[in-house]
Amino acid sequence: MQIDTAAYQRVLGDELRSLRKQRGWTRKELNRRLQSDISLQTLATYELGTRQCSVVRLVEICVALGVPAHQVLARVHERVFGDAPAGHLAVNLAAVAADARPQLQPLRRWAQGRLAALGPGAATEVHLDLPALEYMAQLCGIGTVDLIRTLRDLDANRPR
Questions:
Q1: pLDDT tens digit string along 126-136?
Q2: Are 1 and 32 in contact (CB under 8 A)?
Q3: Most distant CA pair in the chain, distance
């Protein structure tokens, strides 16, 4: 198995950024809670996934965020190495089209359009990469991590 290090770093950064934002903190506020002194630019590059984060630094950031590092890494691993191709998320179009949450309206319209274009008996699952998920999250006005969790919940709760 090949590891897409760039995708892994981006997903890790997305998880860290999401956790920070869930707490309502700026990067500066998170930085003040860190044990060691790092620049805000370095913290930003971790969140953007453009710089590798050492294990010790990751643990330090997770401690400041109040989340065990192994949980963060488990979420990253699941996102990167799920059933879909590396760096992709399997999305069930029927589950998205049937969901009534108002914030998912743009995504629901997209899914309904994709379903309408499919022929009878065609697969209703598509694989989306991180840039597509980020774009869809923006359209819905929610965070990328929140959208991914929602899509996974929709798929997990659909009748089989």
A1: 888 888 888 99
A2: no
A3: 59
